[in-house]
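ARCHIVE CARD
CATEGORY: sequence design from structure
SOURCE FIELD: tokenized fold
FIELD CONTENT:
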């Protein structure tokens, strides 16, 4: 390991060992030392394009984005629906939720199981619910 790598490793270890009260102070100090003005911060992706700046074509495409909702109609086997919701969160969005959260999602009073999702997500969810013979509606917002 090079001397520089060892130094960076040591710094990373020290940062990881900071407590929650020290982290904001570190951020403030680094911004001050680096001369960073929060109002000017603009992230860039690895292509070098600034995320906050869009060309006309991207703005046009953005307007075409439509979101969907999944509305619960009839669920004959609630336990299977809870498991389906857990699987959807895990497989589709990489999020783990417990069975109680899944139950809460299925049993909401407004019958909206998922909201503001893409058509691809809506189709995936519809397929998952068809597997358990549950009736849902995909509704464009």
């Amino acid at each position: 390991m090079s001397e520089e790598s060892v130094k960076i490793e040591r710094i990373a270890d020290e940062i990881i060992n900071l407590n929650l009260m020290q982290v904001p102070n570190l951020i403030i100090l680094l911004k001050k030392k680096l001369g960073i003005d929060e109002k000017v911060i603009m992230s860039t992706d690895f292509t070098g394009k600034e995320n906050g700046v869009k060309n006309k074509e991207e703005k046009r495409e953005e307007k075409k984005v439509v979101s969907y909702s999944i509305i619960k109609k009839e669920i004959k086997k609630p336990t299977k629906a809870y498991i389906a919701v857990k699987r959807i969160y895990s497989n589709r969005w990489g999020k783990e939720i417990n069975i109680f959260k899944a139950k809460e999602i299925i049993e909401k009073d407004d019958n909206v199981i998922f909201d503001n999702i893409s058509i691809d997500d809506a189709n995936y969810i519809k397929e998952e619910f068809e597997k358990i013979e549950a009736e849902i509606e995909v509704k464009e917002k």
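CARD ANNOTATION: The helical segments are 3-16, 22-34, 56-63, 78-93, 99-106, 119-131. The beta strands are 68-74, 112-117, 135-140.
SHELF: design records, drawer C
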